[in-house]
Design a protein that fits this description.
This protein is an alpha+beta fold. About 20% of the residues lie in helices and about 15% in strands.
């Protein structure tokens, strides 16, 4: 699954620089995650780094975008292909 940021986001700016795929960006009111770039850090880390650093725990799995580990690995390979 890709991750999403809930309305509890306080725009603290700590998640964006932690994303190795550049999937997190400022939105109109809160930060947003591009589901086409989010691999939950598969290929980079053992756990999603944005979730690890979020002080208000407002980042969660997006129930509308189910992806298993194999799908996240394929996305990672697509994103890192040269």
């Amino acid at each position: 699954m890709a991750l999403i940021i809930t309305d509890d986001c306080i725009n603290c700016d700590v998640c964006q620089p932690e994303c190795p795929n550049g999937a997190i960006a400022p939105g109109d009111t809160i930060y947003v995650i591009d589901p086409d770039r989010c691999t939950e850090c598969v290929g980079h880390y053992d756990q999603p780094q944005c979730m690890k650093v979020c002080p208000v725990e407002c980042i969660m799995k997006d129930p509308d975008r189910p992806e298993d580990r194999a799908a996240l690995e394929r996305k990672y390979l697509r994103l890192t292909a040269t």
